[in-house]
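Encode chain A's predicted structure.
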Amino acid sequence: MIHNEFDPDRRAIINPEECCRPVEGFPEICIGIFSKPILDWVLKSFGGAEISRFNYCTGTIPIYEVEAYGARAAVYAPMIGGPAAVSTMEEGIPMGGKYFVYFGAAGVLEKGVSHGKLLLPTAAVRDEGLSYHYLPAADEVELSPMDVSACRAAMTELDVPCAEGKTWTTDAFYRETRAKVMRRKEQGCISVEMECASLAAVAQFRGVRFAEFFYATDTVDDAGWDNGILHEKGAGLEEICFHTAVETGKRMKLLSNT
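Encoded structure for chain A:
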């Protein structure tokens, strides 16, 4: 099987540091926001100077330096999907990023989890392709317990309730079948999204710190799909999500320096 062809060679033919140069003064904390409305709220609330860009053939993604809640962070809106999201981490590392916190929408696999609630993944089922280029084949990738703990502590400090469990990372939004949902629930998954396993694999391979959390937007279960608040794109959750992300980054950095 092609997924068993992992090559541990640290050097590839094309490497991120050959394509992206260090940016002077680049913040070590990097926050990827999978929501344009939330990013717009952040820039309106705190301001932000553009300090660099991720450049693609379809356009560019601005990177803003934002000072908020006692920290300085690089803030940007990654594109959806593992390969696209990973490119912002791969290129953010040579720019100067060390502590990566990403957040965005996720579907929940249990009706009892209310829409709008935050979800904290502890591991991700690798139902995507990118992670197999960074780690040997396995069903799951565990998120760093230290970084999960940092995110959990941030939520506790801010009095934000959350649900914890595994997440199901898939490449195929339109192929979330009832049978697959049941299998993922049996594995302990509480959510479904499209980037976590890929990002966690790259972070582990590159030796950087990574945490992610989600806000529940819709429900996918054996009864079908309740699209819930998916169409709201994070409206109403701006402050709690961004504050949680910043506090998580601060704790990750502090734990690394102690």
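The chain has a mean pLDDT of 95.
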